[in-house]
Structures are given as C-alpha cells and as structure tokens.
C-alpha cells in the first residue's frame, strides 16, 4: 500500500491522532479560498472541520523541513489577516520524518506534528492507535522501562522507583491500558503485548528523526571502531554514547552490525568528530550520528572499552529503528530483566 496525501488511511490516522470524530468534515481548498477571499500561493493537503474548529494539514511523504513550517506559518498569517470573526484554526504537519530542530520550532509556533508510519505496508490503525499522551517522552519511558524490568508491580511503586509523580505514572499506564499494551489486575499492572509496545515506540520516536550525519570512517569492523572512538572522545572530554545496533549487540551478544556504528553526539561536536575520524575517500564503514533529545550521557556503561547508552535508552533506540532491528530489539527485551 502506498500512502498518498489524501488516502482514507492517512486521513483516518490523522483524525485518530487529533482525537477528532470520524464524522469530521473534509473540506476542499476552494472553501478555504472563499473564506479568505483571496488566492493562496499554496494550499494545505487536507482541511478538516470539527465543530467550529478548522484543521489545516500539510502531509509530507518524507522529511518535513523548515520550509514546511514557514509555509504553514505564512498560511496562519494570511488567515489572521482577515481580522476578528474568522473561525479558529489549528496548523498540523503530518510527516514520516521531521528533524529535531524543526520539530522544536513547530512546537514553539504551536504547530501540531503527527508522525506517520514509516513503513508503507504497515497497517495504520490496528497495531497502535495514536494517543495524546506519548509513551516515549523521558519521564514516560522511565515508567515503561521500569515496568518491563519489574514484570508486574503497582503504579505507586513505578513512580517511587523512577522518581516521577504518581499522576504522571498513572497517566502513562492509562495510555498503555488504552492501547491494550498493559492490563491491570487489582492494584498491579503488567505488559501483555510487547509487539504492540515496540510498534508504538517506532511510530512515536523513529530514530531517523534524530540522525544528523552518516560519516564514513576508516575502520573495517564496528567494535574496534567503537573502541577507538570511545578512547579518543573520552580524552577530549566530549560527551557521547554508543547506542542502537552497537550497544544492543554488546548487551545481548545476539549480533553486532559490522558495517556501521551508532552513537549519540551533540551537534556542536560533529565537525570535530569528522575531523578526527572522517574518511574523505568514503572507504571503511559508516558512523551513524544521532543528536540526543534527552539526557543520554549520564547513565552510560562501559562494555569492552566502549561507552554505551543505558539498557533503557538502548532498548528505546532499538525499537525506534523499526523492523530492520526487530530481532535485536526482541533479544534485548528477553534479557532486559537481567541488565
């Protein structure tokens, strides 16, 4: 199945993400032109109307850029220019990928961002239903990963063990119950559908969104590369942590990807990293560099002389790699209690 901008599957997914009723009206662009009494240099892909609220939606098949945000912001200004009495509207970008900096700017401008499934053949609705409450935020993931480790426990214990408020833990578990990922028995909760959980993570927080560079490096194998990089960056006092395939392989001993290493690095250190390790000829293997969206450097571990992200962070990142890392992700889940 190919996802087109106005396909019924995409519209249904967006409606679910915005928590709109199925009966919300789909308007044509001509309606928008008529309301604004002017032609626009562009038009939103989808216009939904629920009650008195209008949702102007731009659907991006690949990567949403700063240009996408600029167009939406211009549309808002043209809308507001009509003066008092114009209907309320909400700007929405629905994209498979959006860079962290662009997503942060969208949030600051009060533009909603919806992450569409990356895999074209993946069912849009049945594996994971979008929710207002995200399970991959830093605090929510503390609750979820703790429940994975404890197997069965109370919400209060989850909150206490991870240092989050009871209200936050309760909200997170409530979302998981709605998604049929967790079930509650009296005061205890447990995860009953790990596959659905992993799919939800891949949709909410795809690692593609965090990747800032693919740097060719002059190494033939990933483990020696990661070890040398760890040695150098530690002595330069540059924060970093290997993650994804690299840390997952080291934790599980299941498999180690030899054609690439995956690491977190702040964007301000990228030029120095390329100066130290970049191979202009393009030989060797790849370093996949990700910009952290949370604190990933505090709770690191060292395995075989390599600084790796914590088990909780590694599991989150592996799930965010989607189906290409599914076997390794499942292996990580299997041993997670012991880590």
Question: How would you describe this structure in keywords?
Answer:
globular; 13 helices; alpha+beta; single chain; 4-stranded mixed β-sheet; 22% strand; 339 residues; 5-stranded mixed β-sheet
Tell me what the structure shows:
By secondary structure, the protein is α+β, with helices and mostly antiparallel strands. It has 13 helices and 14 strands. It has helices at residues 8-18, 29-36, 66-80, 100-108, 138-150, 155-162, 166-178, 194-204, 222-235, 244-252, 270-277, 311-320, 326-335, and strands spanning 25-27, 46-50, 53-64, 88-98, 112-115, 152-154, 182-185, 188-191, 211-217, 240-242, 260-265, 285-290, 301-303, 306-308. The protein has a five-stranded mixed sheet with strand order 1-2-3-4-5, with helices on both faces. Strand 3 (53-64), helix 3 and strand 4 form a beta-alpha-beta unit. Helix 6 (155-162) crosses helix 7 and helix 10 (244-252) crosses helix 12 (311-320). It is globular, with a radius of gyration of 22 Å.
